């Protein structure tokens, strides 16, 4: 029985999907979270209000910085309210009062929503490059795509002009995909990314080899299933 459970868990892990019954999310690079979100903010959680009748949680937050925000987002976040589902099966997330988070999400009916498929990370856990990406550089790479090759080897056809191949935790922590002068997209060279690749045996001289056992940020904590 335990062997069957382990086999199933491994299969789910290798499929690059995070499951919580009805909630499933494709693993995304921080830059992708930034580029596809209606808002990306740095906010401290002040209060929490649970409404069982509507199946929702409203977090009162103090926005410290707006990394990216649409016009509708500006209106929605004036109230300092962030909405999510009360149920983990609906991709609801649980935030801790007092903690400082990077939150990405969507705007719907002039309300700001977050879920387990968004970027929900404590600020203190982000690397210097991730912080720089949020503050300045990710926005310059939104015309590029990050191709997820974390848990399977991508063949050469995946290396396209408009994409960067994401195949190790080094790109997660220190990678910023930018369009170069020749028009193609490449990981922006920096000392931290190079050092990470060398340290993990991904680069030998000018050659790169397949990554070994890469991982992504843990998913935000799921909430209880709907009764």
TrEMBL record:
Disulphide bond pairs: 23-91, 25-117, 35-142, 144-185, 149-154, 164-177
InterPro entries referenced in this protein's UniProt entry, alphabetically: Netrin_domain, TIMP, TIMP-like_OB-fold, TIMP_C
Gene3D superfamilies named among the record's database cross-references: 2.40.50.120, Tissue inhibitor of metalloproteinase-1. Chain B, domain 1
Keyword Hydrolase among record annotations: no
Matching SUPFAM superfamilies: TIMP-like (SSF50242)
A biological-process GO annotation: negative regulation of membrane protein ectodomain proteolysis
Gene Ontology molecular-function annotations: metal ion binding; metalloendopeptidase inhibitor activity; protease binding
Keywords recorded for this protein, A-Z: Disulfide bond, Metal-binding, Metalloenzyme inhibitor, Metalloprotease inhibitor, Protease inhibitor, Secreted, Signal, Zinc
Residues the record lists as binding Zn(2+): 23
Subcellular compartments: Secreted
Domain NTR: 23-142
CDD domains with a match to the protein in the record: NTR_TIMP_like
Primary site of residence: secreted
A Gene Ontology cellular-component term: extracellular space
Origin superkingdom: Eukaryota
Signal peptide (from-to): 1-22
Family statement: Belongs to the protease inhibitor I35 (TIMP) family.
Name the UniProt record assigns to this protein: NTR domain-containing protein
């Amino acid at each position: 029985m335990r062997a069957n459970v382990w086999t199933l868990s491994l299969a789910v892990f290798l499929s690059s999907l995070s499951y919580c019954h009805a909630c499933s999310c494709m693993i995304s690079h921080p830059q992708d979270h930034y580029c596809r979100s209606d808002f990306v903010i740095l906010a401290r959680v002040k209060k929490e209000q649970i409404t069982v009748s509507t199946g929702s949680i409203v977090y009162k937050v103090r926005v410290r910085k707006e990394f990216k925000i649409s016009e509708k987002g500006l209106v929605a976040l004036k109230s300092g309210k962030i909405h999510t589902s009360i149920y983990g099966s609906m991709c609801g997330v649980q935030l801790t009062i007092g903690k400082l988070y990077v939150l990405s999400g969507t705007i719907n009916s002039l309300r700001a929503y977050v879920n387990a498929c968004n970027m929900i990370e404590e600020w203190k856990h982000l690397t210097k490059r991730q912080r720089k990406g949020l503050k300045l550089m990710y926005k310059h790479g939104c015309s590029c795509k990050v191709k997820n090759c974390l848990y399977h080897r991508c063949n050469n056809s995946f290396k396209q002009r408009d994409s960067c191949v994401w195949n190790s935790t080094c790109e997660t922590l220190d990678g910023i995909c930018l369009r170069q002068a020749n028009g193609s997209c490449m990981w922006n060279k920096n000392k931290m990314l190079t050092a990470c690749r060398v340290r993990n045996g991904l680069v030998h001289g000018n050659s790169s080899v397949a990554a070994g056992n890469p991982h992504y940020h843990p998913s935000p904590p799921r909430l209880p299933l709907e009764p």
